[in-house]
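User: Working on a comparison across species. This one is DDE Tnp4 domain-containing protein from Molorchus minor. Can you predict its structure so I can line it up against the others?
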Amino acid sequence: METFDDDLEILDLTQNVFPTRIYDRNNHFDQMDNLTFFRSFRLTKPTVLHVLEQIEEQLEYPDDRNNSISPVHQLLICLRCYATGGHLSSCANFMGIAVSSASRTVKKVTNVIAGLRPHYIEMPMLEDAVTTSNKFFSKGAGMPKWDSYSHSIPGGEDAELFRNRKWYFSINSQVVGDAELRIRDIVANLPGSTHNQTIFVNSRIRARFDANEFPNFTLLEWILGKNYLLTPVADPQTQPQQLYNEAHIRTRNSIERLIGVWKRRFPVLACDCRLKLETTLAVIPATAVLHNIAIQMNEGEPQQRAIWAI
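Assistant: Here's the predicted structure for DDE Tnp4 domain-containing protein from Molorchus minor:
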């Protein structure tokens, strides 16, 4: 008959075979200089503190059992994941935690940041809309707003649903942006095989224009409302047609630049995202929120070379 002492002996042998590992977590926030910190986490220290102030309470653990991860460390783990394209093993080694802890933390923090969406991703009110229009006109674009589509790499089952027309797997996202490269509206929950027009026709932004939510936004309604989308003239013959095409190109360049800056700031959007599909769908609006916060905090645009300096 087995005794209590026998159970203790078995437990002791098990701990010898699978010893508990204690990770040494580095204090990257205090130890890194500003440039190294930005290259590693894609946001500056003041911006990270600004984000932390809004989500800290939701990241706090009720006690410090099992060496719980602090809110600032959780946020940096998530940002590091966004900076490395979703490589959880690389993120875990860099941050000094287990891969399983990195996975849980990234999911948790991503959902919390995505919850800030109503505060940072919204269509402008009348005064802001006029300002946005003037900024586009001052740049010689001539059109106030544009929407575009971006693809992010997903994982998960039913992969063929996510194969887009270019034959790679993605999530097709619709983005509405303004002249300051802020994201004003986003739809990011449909597989890459979904046609762009299908996304727009079924989007909330179209329903809002159909419901005349923006009665005074004549220029916005002209672009996205009654006729929904304007396309360039195929064979411009007159000067007005040529000017229209030029304005069309310049306006589209603005949204393409927005997409480029957004992806350079967070390479997880451009690389093969190695997270679960559920988490990936939350990463897209979460990074959009962080992108808008970075613009609000007057952060500079990330340089292309900085992507590889991580």
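For your comparison, note: The first helix runs from residue 4 to 17.

User: Helpful, thanks.
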